[in-house]
Amino acid sequence: MNAPPEPGYDVAVVGAGPAGLAAAVTAAARGRAVLLLDAADRPGGQFWRHPPTPPDGGGEDGHGRSGWGTFTALRRALRDHAGRGRLAYRPGQQVWLVTRDEDGFLIETTPTHDGVEPLPGPARARRLVLAPGGGDRHLPVPGWTLPGVMAAGGAQALLKGQRTLAGRRAVVAGTGPFLLPVAAGLAEAGAEVVGVWEAGSPLAWTRHLPAVARVPAKLAEGAGYAAALARHRVPYRTRTVVSAVLGEDRVRAVRRTSLDATGTPRPGGTEVPVDLVALGWGFTPSLELPLQLGAATRVDADGSLVAAVDADQRTDVPGLYAAGEATGVGGAALGVAEGTLAGLAAAGAATDTAPARRLRATIRAHRAFARAMHLAHPVPAGWTRWLTDDTVVCRCEEVKCAAVRAAHDELAAGDARTVKMLTRTGMGWCQGRMCGFATAALTAELTGHRPAEAELRSTASRPLAAPVPLCELAREARLFPST
Ligand SMILES: Cc1cc2nc3c(=O)[nH]c(=O)nc-3n(C[C@H](O)[C@H](O)[C@H](O)COP(=O)(O)OP(=O)(O)OC[C@H]3O[C@@H](n4cnc5c(N)ncnc54)[C@H](O)[C@@H]3O)c2cc1C
């Protein structure tokens, strides 16, 4: 599975999650030479994240995990194509830069940890499928920098990937269906989950019943999680948020506050003791690589910047395709359908066939469901009301809410980029991955206009997609033509 990389693949795929795996095996099945690069050590992405390999090297148990049969089929195909020399799978490789010339794409990688062999140089491919997924979307709340506060996805990743429970007495709060598997997972693993606090109201789904009816599997999945929560007697509250995290050197309690019908916190609240706070406000697609190549974008129903693609998952950059969360947050099944279509198109196979039309129908149904989900579970309009002057917005640069407000009120910053320049939000280690959404939303409230696509592009653009050692940069003299 790990033959040395050849200069010149027909198709390279970045990301071995549901979308990238499907794209890679589909292109390989059409006889193309495929390179599959992934930062993780094992295939599956966020959805099919693995527990650690047992010391005896035994197999893992996917029992009860959603779509596990699809995953094992994709993994079998991956091994099969790799065994036949059609597909080079390179786990543990972070892609930090992609560029394009007349022959195709050049892909720069760096190993994600010791023990992974670096590739001998940039990989080259005529066509490129980007399936980098996304990450948790964060909203600041007073006290969220205390140990014991985690993104819901982070708490779940610890559980799935390390079999580690991040606390004993937990609250899972935020908005969207993703809160359910996180709470169910924590409860199944033995945590006392004091509640799932949903900022929205599931009744909002009733405005989107036709879209829901098109994806019955999602209803079944939701019902499964609801049953797990009922089994563990986890209370589910709507229009409820964590409006402050309390504690001195770690989380001691949270303040539970209800929201009015406009999404504004009501005064007061109740103190609830917990030692783990898992906050989930949806996901933010990873757009670094599409933006490095100048691909066109659009703003999705949840306000996220996403890659714009046509009916074959083609971006407006010749030879470049995108699939999965990068084209809009919508779930693993959507990722598999988009990845399969992207794999077909990138391999140069016909896409006016009945199977391709069926894939498009699946994509349309899942996109309609995702849109309904985004509209039913918005970030509450009044979320900034729970911020105090002292609330940290940018954790890396320790920029507080007062500084962001002062950038607007006193220094006339009129957009998120100017706020960033004046306050250093988003200039630290994470390059705005954590605070980018909050800074844009806070600025939008201060200025009274929603961030335009150009503004989102400027805050999501990162010249390097990941931190790299300086020696890696030094190796690539072609990146510095004037030196
Ligand atoms: C933390 C988290 C937890 C989630 N849990 C659930 C859940 O319980 N239930 C549910 O229905 N949905 C869940 N989702 C959503 C679900 O994971 C996605 O819908 C689905 O996995 C999307 O598939 P994808 O292939 O687009 O991306 P992903 O599954 O995110 O896969 C992307 C892959 O690309 C790799 N990658 C990214 N950037 C680079 C790079 N620069 N270089 C190399 N590799 C790169 C990543 O390592 C990853 O393996 C979760 C999402 C997140 C972020």
UniProtKB/TrEMBL annotation:
Residues 44-66 are annotated as: Disordered. InterPro entries: BFD-like_2Fe2S-bd_dom_sf, FAD/NAD-bd_sf, FAD/NAD-binding_dom, Metab_Enz_Cyan_OpOx_G3PDH, Opine_Oxase_asu/HCN_bsu. Pfam families: Pyr_redox_2 (PF07992). Keywords: Oxidoreductase. Residues 9-327 form the FAD/NAD(P)-binding domain. This is NAD(P)/FAD-dependent oxidoreductase.
